[in-house]
Amino acid sequence: MARDLRLAWRHPDEIILTLAFFALVASLFPLGIGAEPQLLARIGPGVIWVGALLAAFLALPGIFAADFIDGSLEQMTLSPHPPLGWAAGKIAAHWIISGLPLTLMSPLIGLQYGLTGDTLLVEALSLALGTPILSLLGGACAALALGARGGGMLLALLALPLFVPVLIFGAGAAEAQATGLAPTPHLSLLAAALIAALVGVPAAVVAAVRISVD
Amino acid sequence: MNWFYFSSPSTFYGLAGRLAPWFFALAAVTAVWGLYLGLLVAPTDAQQGEVYRVIFIHVPTAWMSMFLYFVMACYCGLTLVFNTRLSAMMARAIAPTGALFTAVALWTGSFWGKPTWGTYWVWDARLTSELVLLFLYFGFIALSNAFEDPRRGDRAAALLAIIGVVNLPIIYFSVQWWNTLHQGSSVSFKGTSMHVTMLTGMLVMSFSAWFYAAGAALVRVRSIILERERRAQWVRELKEG
Fold it and tell me: Strands B191-192, B187-188: parallel, antiparallel or unpaired by DSSP?
């Protein structure tokens, strides 16, 4: 994980690209749909979530692809270190370079959409809970699709359906706050899904990497 | 008796060839019987009129779409745990039929929804999760064909299928967990709120769908076996003999 973070730190352009993509997607909607303040406040939470989801998705191939091509992934599976450790580390590194910056940037985008204080907070909180799930599920799919034909589209077909529930609850939380309902049920469900994914998915990632390298 | 006799592709090829016509014949007989019950015998529904008759297709295909995914995931589990060849071929053979039933369930559901709910599609929990199931089937088929080495595709797709099993309880319980437009089930083990010929018709149609799925999977697995084993001795003998 330290190695992945150092690599990312030396090439900060990838993080900046992810954030720029997020900002661009979020600004396309007002331009395409129309910029009435009420409409923007209504669609804001959902658009921010979709933008963050797509940005995190585009960063997925980076988790394993480079290490798969130069063979270091194979070395990792052969190394004496516990596989769950480095698999979880790589996914955590992906979250730190995609999910975390996206979460920190979301209030800024939210202000563009005219969201108010509490909604911004809930939106950021739901992203903080939701994006790690995206990194985990997406990491498993990225490992499965290593070396496959039709890489990007295939990864979209595998990962995006699995992201749907996360999107529903994540956007639902901010939506509920914006319309004056309690966001806690959605946030609790997201937290529960995060815990379940933390327990189950790293093992699936290890299994997927093993299938890919041999 | 050797329990593993038919777990070899060469012996299973013959068994599948002998069983498939029987499954298709039973599927045809039960389909005729079920449609007769459903379209001619069953009474008109008091609230929905004649439109409700689409359940004789909708409910059996929806049941089978989930059941086939479960069966496919079981075969995938066998593939990953025991590294068996035939189970992976069976999973591949089931997937297109499962996707077909999922699509038919969504399609008939939307035709029923237009006159009854006034819309072809709503983003209701059950409809959305069934749509996710359709994409899981597509993802499975795409991933299993995405590699040069078919064994690699088998195992990658098997892992995907097992991850996707999480979706099945979500579909099944979605009408209880979320209070949305799709109505709850009228059939349970405790009894039913339907007329008895309606229920019989639906069950007969479910058996028909099951027989059809089994027959189609067996025919498909035969061609997968031939393709995979084309360099084996027994396939060459089959071709010559």
Answer: antiparallel
Q: Are B171 and B178 a contacting pair, CB within 8 Å?
A: no
Tens of pLDDT along B70-84? 999 999 998 888 888
Domains of chain A, by residue range, sit at 2-213
Q: Least CB-CB distance to B143: which of A158, A165, A168? A: A158
Least CB–CB distance from A211: residue in B138, B159, B162: B159
Q: Give ipTM to 2 decimals.
A: 0.78
Using CA coordinates, name the residue in chain B closest to A144.
B156
CB < 8 Å from B in window 119-158 of A = 137, 140-141, 144-145, 147-150, 154, 157-158
Q: Name the nearest CA neighbour of A142 among B69, B92, B159.
A: B159
Contacts of A99 (CB under 8 A, 6+ apart): A52, A56, A127, A128, A131, A132, A134, A135
pTM of the predicted model as reported, rounded to 2 decimal places: 0.84
* Residue B235, phi then psi, degrees to nearest 5: -70, -40
Domain spanning B17-240 has what CATH number?
1.20.120
**Chain B residues touching A165 at Cβ < 8 A:** 170
